[in-house]
């Protein structure tokens, strides 16, 4: 029965002021203090009794309150302790439960993603019309049975009626255009209103992308209910509504949140995970990989995303299980087949021409654009969100959503590129112009002259009027998307950022791609083109530019690197195009980092004041532990407990007069030699427990943390042994330790606090919050913003 | 000028007994001690002088000896310190040097891999014959210009002469068979002899796969010359010879060593990396990714291999750079195009049929086979290597290589599947039987009857006599490979294990695949086949079985998981086949782990006694720091220094009488309160330095580690201040800390030693070697085997 309890204090003292078990205890104690029992001799025997009694676990010790930081070291010790106790019979079950929970998470994530994809598609088409045969068919499915077989006309079939056709009885003309316009706005507003109301009433945690909060939770923070049943249900429903409302948002980020909710819910089936916050985070890491896997159909990219972007503690065992969860989720999604093409991936593309070295210049320019866009977006969006938080304006989230949705719908409808689903827009922009392509973007002169279904041997790549129209519309769409996305991300509806960012990049990339293509066509005598482009052959693929631009913009916003390249690589499946992608993503990250090193998720974490100690950013200052620890010179002295000369009453006074979550225990006030550390929560629980179950514990009882009771006068009441709640292995550093080492220890071991000593004497304490406050001070930010608020 | 020097002791005290700078100093001191200088007053001013003097870095402090463990925390501090000092002008260069060094590493690795591939192919064909037109062409290149265009005959052309044809003038008949047999053995023995002699004479570190040593180096250990120029040169040359000699070994593992040598050599160009052992390891991690990338043409798999298998400390920045290095290497290799098919990958395969659910049963059986093979191989190979180490037998490495090469050549020649290059064998086994396939393995009845170049509409998949012959030959090849690989891995030539393991798995897999195929053909009325296989269609792909078997066997031997699946996924390029691969690899790992959790690399690390603290295996025992620390009860007391009352002479006595690499410094013998930690090496260097440069330092001079000199009698000699070599922030744990936490701290922070305290008093010390010895004791191994020997 060795005490494996380690570092039980909570670093976030402020949250405990509202938490008052001790007040309860104080009242309880008032009624008991009359009841005095004589306790002459027999100290030793009662000590033995106490010892046996206290070696039993005290209920309630070792759990966390909401908005508290977990202690990774303690959680891992608890798991190993549990592991040793598991009987052989249950050993196999125990080993398999990890695989079972990730399998279930993968299955559920895949199924929910399929459901969301199908419903969002259907609801999105509802804005434009309805299928007469079968209400539950979307536009594409409705026309599958149609006789129209030419590709250009495949979207037009008699079964599918636009709202104007249904209500006014005519499909063409200005009247029906206005009718359709009106119905589009009506449905968009209805969906947005429903979404925001559902979120507001049932599950406020369902809003946003969820990734900042998941990063914080994975770094070891408790937010009760953030990954619960209600959040899952409401987020799933409102995500469909939000996507269908036409707002400039995507469903990819929220899918990670949905998958994490599944992981959290399934982890409650197994005590191994439900009772251990560190083990639960392993499941959540796997779940986030499954989320990205279904969002993009990229299992390997999902695992790398989990590793690079969201996870904090990622042992190799988790890597393997994350990969498994991602694969299961991807295969479930594929068997649901929401896109109707038995493809796993959202934007499956195949390019037929290689890229040439000179194209690296436009690719790098796209990277610069992506980095600039990312930096601008982060600054603008954070400024707007801060305004929302700080002014009266943030009080009306429903009105805000309605307002943004209305503007979006009004502006989006006239432009075909903004009216359509953003995912479809990206798909169209990524796709290369083949002979069967009916898109306006592919109206080259060769196709206008020749037969559409015939592959021209030497394609005339001179742009036709359709391409010029498309270019103008794309430019307008670009401006529209840029503005709307800034105001949309942060609304109180589920809102992902991946798809809008990619759309912006894809539009910019396609524009650049077509420009380069036309340049190569009209100026094929230029040196760069003469070298590589033979006359009459395709040498520029505008679709590839769109893909590179999308990756660059997404990289600029999120500052992802490897995982982003791998996700896009899994879309195309060819190593061929990795070099352009890497060039653009690297440029984008460097340009973005020049304006501020934080990605959008880190910025939102900081805006919301979550206690997140970023594992990526380096601590480069030269301060010492001495300068960060509390108490500093102006502070009151450190609240400490002595190991054997406090009474219950004195202990209560110390606890009532301070708000710290834990107290160091020392040998004596004179020597200041450190014995251990004990938690406020544990002391209150243990005293309450002792008073209820042990007789003879009075206010004047001596409290001791040593192995044997101190020698007391014969008439003193029975002493109270609290050794079992004493953490005898607190982490300590000396006052001369550079803060960079202290920060490293906190990050790598997941500490909540660390005691500071000088020549063996206790000097002070450093908590995670002290470090965050110190780092904010060093970068000239307001340190009081660092707390959770 | 804050002291960032941290934990300077070395844990491997034993190595220092031979290292005698102090003996040198003692002799030096003998000549100097006559030279006495009066040093009356002026203590304070000289102290100030000393202070300024000692704040300058003392040359030699902060480097490591060969076979010593590095201190990650100190190295990282050093780098940050350096970073702060870099002037703005050099900042850009500093930031880019990391990218530059990985780019150079990637370029060099790719180029060397191409060179090795081409030379090994050519030298391998020399064993069979020679190209008359051009000596430097291998068999395939020689026949490119030939008129023979049918696929069956493509390897036969008049330009290529077998040795019998050249010497006897006839290609056929028993005489020429014996001649060819003889020449094959002759060349094989010559290559093997040359390889082992080169290794023995010039670079003993060039032998083996190198991965165990690279893992140890990456975990923070110094082996001088292991990644040096000579090793690189000799390893490259002998690798070609060893592969060409026909021994059962591969070049994939050694390519990782070659790439790491490149990384190490290029890191010497940049002081940022050459002077910092922790930063150098980031380059080495990237280099190992580049090595696997060129070995298999799998850049993403290479990065995951580096992450999962070899690296110890892998920050995200390294992930990104590793990915870049892997890509650069892969593209250089592709532009060299050693395989003549402009493919990046070694075994490019495309399958045209999907797999069915019932096939998971044979796939899992292959996984079981892989796991059993892995466990058996590890046990047998380690037993054999231990015998080689411990008996007289290991004294004759050259004879052993010749003997093994002779047996291999004699047995291998008659069987076409063992005679050919192992990589080609694997390629043939992976390849599906198409209509153009001329292999014996594809002689089905349909092809024997019909025209060879004509695709039969309903292939008759009944095996012909060629298939039956091939099956027998494959069975013999399997037994041969299993036996020879056990004796080959560990010879004193460069020897990789990937290719032989994959070959064994591919043979087993192909045999199983053909068996299942024939079963499906003859028993297509069975329930499982009736459900999925229509009569007359291909439903079993024996090549896929070979691939799954190869992955399973490689997984069984190395216990790799995700990286292995990703490497094989990159070979096929289809997510389709990931599920069979995962099923087999997971089964293989579980079955293998049931017989012993260590992979072959960890086993060799343990066999060689490298101080490697595995980050993957969990410490599950319940011992406390108290039980592991030294001194235990029977030991002599801990050697400590007091902060201000030792003389130079007393200090020298302590250093001479002990062999510890470092000493804790305490306030006084009575209080035992810890002040800091100082290194043996630093003390000797500092005293020598002071005696040479500072006047008035005698044997009776007082040594002090405090900020201010102690008050001394007026006639005492000038004191020596050693505060600058004192590490004032040693890591400490309490004696009650569970060892699992201590092990965690050592792993995650990369410590060399940790001091143990009880209630603020110093009790003892725990070094990395103490932990390894303790872990060996707990698993009933001989603890003395744990040292490097």
In brief, what are we looking at here?
Two copies of one chain form a homodimer. By secondary structure, chain A is mainly α. Chain A has 31 helices and eleven strands.
Topology summary:
The structure is a homodimer of 789-residue chains.
Chain A: H1 21-32, H2 43-55, H3 72-85, H4 88-126, E1 129-131, H5 139-142, E2 160-162, H6 163-167, H7 174-202, H8 211-218, H9 229-244, H10 252-267, H11 271-274, H12 277-296, H13 299-310, H14 316-336, H15 360-390, H16 397-412, H17 416-419, H18 422-430, H19 445-449, H20 465-488, H21 498-522, H22 527-532, H23 542-558, H24 562-572, H25 578-594, H26 600-608, H27 625-628, E3 641-642, E4 646-647, H28 648-657, E5 662-666, E6 674-679, H29 680-693, E7 702-704, E8 720-721, E9 732-734, H30 739-749, E10 753-758, E11 761-767, H31 768-778
Family (chains A, B): Belongs to the chloride channel (TC 2.A.49) family. ClC-3/CLCN3 subfamily.
Subcellular location (chains A, B): Cell membrane; Early endosome membrane; Late endosome membrane; Lysosome membrane
Main location (chains A, B): membrane
């Amino acid at each position: 029965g060795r005490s494996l309890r380690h570092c039980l204090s909570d670093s976030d003292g402020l949250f405990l002021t509202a938490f008052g078990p001790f007040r309860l205890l104080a009242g309880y104690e008032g009624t008991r203090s009359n009841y005095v029992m004589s306790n002459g001799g027999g100290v030793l025997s009662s000590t033995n009794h106490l010892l046996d009694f206290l070696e039993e676990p005290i209920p309630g010790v070792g759990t966390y309150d909401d908005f508290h930081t977990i202690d990774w070291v303690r959680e891992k010790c608890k798991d190993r302790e549990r592991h040793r106790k598991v009987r052989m019979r249950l050993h196999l079950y125990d080993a398999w439960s990890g695989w079972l929970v990730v399998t279930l998470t993968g299955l559920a994530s895949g199924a929910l993603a399929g459901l969301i994809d199908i419903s969002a598609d259907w609801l999105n088409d509802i804005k434009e019309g309805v299928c007469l045969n079968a209400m539950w068919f979307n536009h594409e499915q409705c026309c599958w049975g149609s006789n129209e077989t030419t590709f250009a006309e495949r979207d037009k079939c008699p079964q599918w009626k636009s709202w104007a056709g249904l209500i006014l009885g005519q499909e063409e003309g200005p009247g029906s255009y206005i009718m359709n316009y009106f119905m589009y706005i009506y449905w968009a507003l209805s969906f947005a209103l429903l979404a925001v109301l559902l979120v507001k009433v049932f599950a406020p945690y369902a809003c946003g992308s969820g990734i900042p909060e998941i990063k914080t939770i994975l770094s070891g923070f408790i937010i009760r209910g953030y990954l619960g049943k209600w959040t899952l249900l409401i987020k799933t429903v409102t995500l469909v509504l939000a996507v269908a409302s036409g707002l400039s948002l995507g469903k990819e980020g929220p899918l990670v949140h949905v998958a994490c909710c599944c992981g959290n819910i399934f982890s409650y089936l197994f005590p191994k995970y439900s009772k251990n916050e560190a083990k639960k985070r392993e499941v959540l890491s796997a779940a986030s990989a499954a989320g990205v896997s279904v969002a993009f159909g990229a299992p390997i990219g999902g695992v790398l995303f989990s590793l690079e972007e969201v996870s904090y503690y990622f042992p190799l065992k988790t890597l393997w299980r994350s990969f498994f969860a991602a694969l299961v989720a991807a295969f479930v999604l594929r068997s649901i087949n929401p896109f109707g093409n038995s493809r796993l991936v959202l934007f499956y593309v195949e390019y037929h021409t290689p890229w040439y070295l000179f194209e690296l210049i436009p690719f790098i320019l796209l990277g610069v654009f992506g980095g600039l866009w990312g930096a601008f977006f982060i600054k603008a969006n954070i400024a707007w969100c801060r305004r929302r938080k700080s002014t009266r304006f943030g009080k009306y989230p429903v009105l805000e959503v309605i307002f943004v949705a209305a503007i979006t719908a009004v502006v989006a409808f006239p432009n075909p590129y903004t009216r359509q689903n953003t995912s479809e827009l990206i798909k169209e922009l990524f796709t290369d112009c083949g002979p069967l392509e009916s898109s306006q973007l592919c109206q080259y002169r060769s196709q206008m002259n020749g037969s559409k279904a015939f592959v021209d041997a030497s394609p005339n790549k001179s742009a036709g009027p359709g391409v010029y129209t498309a270019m103008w519309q794309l430019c307008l769409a670009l401006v529209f998307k840029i503005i709307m996305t800034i105001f949309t991300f942060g609304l109180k509806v589920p809102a992902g950022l991946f798809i809008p960012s990619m759309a912006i990049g894809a539009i910019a990339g396609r524009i650049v791609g077509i420009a380069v293509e036309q340049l190569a066509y009209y100026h094929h005598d230029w040196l760069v083109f003469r070298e590589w482009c033979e006359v009459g052959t395709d040498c520029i693929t505008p679709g590839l530019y769109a893909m590179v631009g999308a990756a660059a913009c997404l990289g600029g916003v999120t500052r992802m690197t490897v995982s982003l390249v791998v996700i896009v690589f899994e879309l195309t499946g060819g190593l061929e195009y990795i070099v352009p992608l890497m060039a653009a993503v690297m440029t984008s990250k460097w340009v973005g980092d020049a304006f501020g090193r934080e990605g959008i998720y880190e910025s939102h974490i900081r805006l919301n004041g979550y206690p997140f100690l970023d594992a990526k950013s380096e601590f480069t200052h030269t301060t010492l532990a001495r300068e960060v620890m509390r108490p500093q010179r102006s502070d009151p002295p450190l609240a400490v407990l002595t190991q054997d000369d406090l009474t219950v009453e004195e202990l209560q006074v110390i606890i009532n007069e301070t708000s710290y979550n834990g107290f160091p225990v020392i040998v004596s006030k004179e020597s200041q030699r450190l014995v251990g550390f004990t938690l406020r929560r544990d002391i209150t629980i243990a005293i309450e427990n002792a008073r209820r179950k042990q007789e003879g514990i009075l206010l004047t009882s001596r409290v001791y943390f040593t192995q044997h009771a101190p020698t007391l006068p014969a008439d003193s009441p029975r002493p109270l042994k609290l050794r079992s709640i004493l953490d005898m292995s607190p982490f300590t550093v000396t006052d001369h330790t550079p803060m960079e080492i202290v920060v490293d220890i906190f990050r790598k071991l997941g500490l909540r606090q660390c005691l500071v000593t000088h020549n063996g004497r206790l000097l002070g304490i450093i908590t995670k919050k002290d470090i965050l406050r110190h780092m904010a001070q060093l970068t000239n930010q307001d340190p009081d913003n660092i707390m959770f608020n």
